[in-house]
Automatic annotation (TrEMBL):
Segments forming domain HTH gntR-type: 6-74
Entry-linked PANTHER family: MANNOSYL-D-GLYCERATE TRANSPORT/METABOLISM SYSTEM REPRESSOR MNGR-RELATED, MANNOSYL-D-GLYCERATE TRANSPORT_METABOLISM SYSTEM REPRESSOR MNGR-RELATED
Protein's name according to its UniProt entry: UTRA domain-containing protein
Gene3D superfamilies in the record: Chorismate lyase-like, Winged helix-like DNA-binding domain superfamily/Winged helix DNA-binding domain
UniProt superkingdom: Bacteria
Length: 242
């Protein structure tokens, strides 16, 4: 896929996502056909398929053979209009928040040998990402382990100092970029061995697992992260409108 096609498929993906978020494409409604998107964006069916696959992967739509693509509500999903960082959220709760950087490197996406990562970031396997592992502390006690991937094309440089504090503050205050919304998928699982060790908990103690995508205000994805949070340090406020 060339750069033009890459841009076009992301444009289609963002077009659909924004209409799902706004309610223009309601849950359980049938999306326009592939042919409609091909004509509207002047692209091939392959490019439209790429956009649809990304939305299916994130749980926003479902393909039904012989019927079409339908809007779905992602399972165990929390979507927020305003994004805030771990540091901001836990500071509001009265915690003295600190971060320990465990590992950092710049690496090609293909080196992870995980096809999902390329789809999540809307990037090519040959593209580079900042990859880093961090432990978050509240009042000197570990409460979260986070594995993050940030696209280098969008955020070329990340000083180590910001990895130990708030990346979002660095992006907005130093790079003058505006962080937009994000989407998260949540589940409760038993922790991987390395996570249990870093959180100092038994392997039998459940943790909240969150896979998260962050976007800039122009809807471009710049970050994907996997977070493991102690269950007694996590809560969610959910409101529903009829």
């Amino acid at each position: 896929m060339n750069n033009y096609d890459k841009y076009k498929y992301k444009q289609i993906e963002n077009f659909i996502y924004e209409r799902i978020r706004s309610g223009t494409y309601a849950v359980d409604s049938l999306l326009p056909t592939h042919h409609w998107f091909c004509e509207k964006f002047e692209v091939s069916r392959t490019t439209v398929n790429k956009a649809f696959e990304a939305l299916v992967e994130n749980g926003f739509i479902e393909k039904i053979q012989g019927s079409g693509c339908y809007v779905r509500t992602p399972k165990l999903s929390q979507q927020s209009i305003y994004m805030s960082s771990f540091s901001e959220e836990y500071s509001k709760k009265g915690y003295q928040v600190s971060t320990k950087l465990i590992f950092y490197t710049v690496i090609r996406i293909k080196d992870f040998q995980d096809n999902r990562l390329s789809k999540k970031l809307g990037a090519l396997p040959k593209d580079y990402v900042h990859y880093f592992e961090r432990v978050r502390f509240g009042n000197d006690k570990p409460f979260a382990v986070q594995y993050s991937y940030i696209t280098k094309d969008i955020i070329p440089n990340l000083p180590l100092s910001c990895l130990k504090s708030s990346i979002y503050s660095f992006i907005e205050n130093n790079l003058n970029l505006v962080i937009g919304d994000g989407s998260s998928q949540l589940s409760v699982i038993l922790p991987p061995d390395d996570v249990a060790l870093l959180l100092n908990i038994p392997k039998t103690e459940p943790v909240v697992y969150i896979s998260h995508i962050s976007r800039l205000s122009n809807s471009v994805v710049f970050e994907y992260s996997d977070s493991f949070i102690k269950y007694d340090h996590f809560s969610i406020l959910y409101s529903n409108k009829r």
